[in-house]
């Protein structure tokens, strides 16, 4: 029965299918010639939709965190994600991306003016500034169980200058032995 219906009405069916295909192909060809908003750099800078606010958070080995905020126009998502591939995405919303990076290095503040010392209750502390005006960065509580050599204790009482992670690990590691 279906064969008879299809056999009788094949011409309108084929014409209808052909007209639908012709209509969609015309739309596709017509839209190919129009420049898209993303392909025109001048249009991207005019449009606020392509501008993103970026928050970069850098966490250093000494516990100090620095943040930087800036706005950037995105021309290509693939290039954007490639450029920041070594950063971890913490949060992402429309028009906003929060990146975080942990560095195994001391912060610039500690590199320039960082000291290790002992607190009044004999805990090892990392601080910046002169020994009289300590700005405590981090306290190492676990070291109070381990004895330090007398020479290291004397040096820590006066404040030992620290400018690299290796120096910090060497002193902290000595207290943990």
Shape, per Cα inertia axes: rod-shaped
* Fourth CATH level, the homologous superfamily of the largest domain: Bypass-of-forespore C, C-terminal domain
Share of β-strand residues: 25-35%
**Tell me, what is the CATH class of the largest domain?**
Alpha Beta
Strand order of the largest sheet: 2-1-4-3
Order of helices and strands: HHHEEHEEHEEEHEH
The CATH topology name of the largest domain reads Alpha-Beta Plaits
- Average pLDDT confidence is 77
Number of contiguous helices: 7
Helix content: 25-40%
Q: What's the structural domain tally?
A: 3
User: Uncertain regions: pLDDT < 50 for 5+ in a row?
Assistant: 37-47
What Rg is obtained from the alpha carbons, in whole angstroms? 32 Å
| Main sheet overview | 4 strands, mixed
Give the end-to-end Cα distance, rounded to a whole number of Å.
Answer: 92 Å
CATH architecture of the largest domain: 2-Layer Sandwich
Structural class: alpha+beta
- Give the number of DSSP strands: 8
